[in-house]
Amino acid sequence: METADIQSLYHQVLWAALAVAFVFGAVAQRTHFCTMGAISDIVNMGDWTRMRMWGMAVGVAMLGFYGMAWLGWIDPFQTIYTGPRVIWLSALVGGALFGFGMVLGSGCGSKTLVRIGGGNLKSLVVFVVMGLAAFATLRGITAVWRVQTVDRVAFEMESSNALPLWLSSVMGWSVPSSGLLVGGVVGVGLVLWAALNRDFRASADNWLAGMGIGATVAALWWVTGHLGFVEEHPETLESVFLASNTGRMESLTFTAPMAYVIDWLIYFSDASKVLTLGVVTVAGVVLGAFVYAVASGTFRWEGFSSTQDTALHIVGAICMGVGGVTAMGCTVGQGLSGLSTLSLTSVIAVLGIVLGALGGFRFQMWLIERE
């Protein structure tokens, strides 16, 4: 493959990623898909509908990921989630910090982008603060604290910390068969858990959220792991995943990419700063949500209601930026993309997010009672 062909393929990957993120944003805007909202519905009303949306989305993404691995389209080992090292304390602490922050910030990273598309100026402030906090935790002062503390507490697993890949190593099974068996059973189980509920089946939007969001996660795995994979780059003679920020195949995640957007905007004139998957997917989600909001007549400008409202959103944004990077992902990064690989680290991170969110709800109740 010639250098010109690589450039052409690079652009194809970016356009494909933008299209996938656009669909994610439009579907999330229409269906009110939100992890924090799902937890809140359970805590406050005992309603599991939005959690079933989330469960179906994970199941669909999982079936897509391990189905493509079985077909040989992607290498399931080539993700940040499926490595052998389990940074369990980072995942738990970072997840809890992120979960707490998303309650104060009125939604997780993906919801923040969707709200921006819908005209929410509060979420624009959350985006900027969260992006700066994420950048500091990737390369700045909180990055030093992260590396010197929680990141040091970890353990290694045989081959991979993703259950199907670990089983293939321990049991001597082939990777495609192990992935299809375990991923298929868990993925189908999650889809059925949602689909067999009468209330869930009653709304087309529930199906659209579960199937649509899950499909976007699987689609981006294909875009980065298959379309964007070059076995031998003509300049380095090494295999490469084009437009990837991590150097591996990626799917949707929104904490570190917010930092990448700020970095790209600030250093735009620097020739070394090029568009990447993280940057275009952030833009795609906002654009998709905006187009649907305008088309459906739901676009509304919204701002802060008080000084306390402003302060809570800023603190929440900082918690999400620091926590999301520490946990190596947000409710979409670890919660959908990570869980689609059945990564143990992702399971721990999601547990942390749920615990943090519960703490955030209790804190909100304390504020209300105090007033």
TrEMBL record:
<feature type="transmembrane region" description="Helical">
    <location>
        <begin position="54"/>
        <end position="74"/>
    </location>
</feature>
<keyword id="KW-0472">Membrane</keyword>
<feature type="transmembrane region" description="Helical">
    <location>
        <begin position="86"/>
        <end position="104"/>
    </location>
</feature>
<keyword id="KW-0812">Transmembrane</keyword>
<keyword id="KW-0813">Transport</keyword>
<dbReference type="InterPro" id="IPR007272">
    <property type="entry name" value="Sulf_transp_TsuA/YedE"/>
</dbReference>
<feature type="transmembrane region" description="Helical">
    <location>
        <begin position="124"/>
        <end position="145"/>
    </location>
</feature>
<feature type="transmembrane region" description="Helical">
    <location>
        <begin position="342"/>
        <end position="361"/>
    </location>
</feature>
<keyword id="KW-0997">Cell inner membrane</keyword>
<dbReference type="GO" id="GO:0005886">
    <property type="term" value="C:plasma membrane"/>
</dbReference>
<keyword id="KW-1133">Transmembrane helix</keyword>
<feature type="transmembrane region" description="Helical">
    <location>
        <begin position="12"/>
        <end position="33"/>
    </location>
</feature>
<keyword id="KW-1003">Cell membrane</keyword>
<feature type="transmembrane region" description="Helical">
    <location>
        <begin position="310"/>
        <end position="330"/>
    </location>
</feature>
<comment type="similarity">
    <text>Belongs to the TsuA/YedE (TC 9.B.102) family.</text>
</comment>
<dbReference type="Pfam" id="PF04143">
    <property type="entry name" value="Sulf_transp"/>
</dbReference>
<protein>
    <submittedName>
        <fullName>Uncharacterized protein</fullName>
    </submittedName>
</protein>
<feature type="transmembrane region" description="Helical">
    <location>
        <begin position="274"/>
        <end position="295"/>
    </location>
</feature>
<feature type="transmembrane region" description="Helical">
    <location>
        <begin position="207"/>
        <end position="229"/>
    </location>
</feature>
<feature type="transmembrane region" description="Helical">
    <location>
        <begin position="165"/>
        <end position="195"/>
    </location>
</feature>
<feature type="transmembrane region" description="Helical">
    <location>
        <begin position="249"/>
        <end position="267"/>
    </location>
</feature>
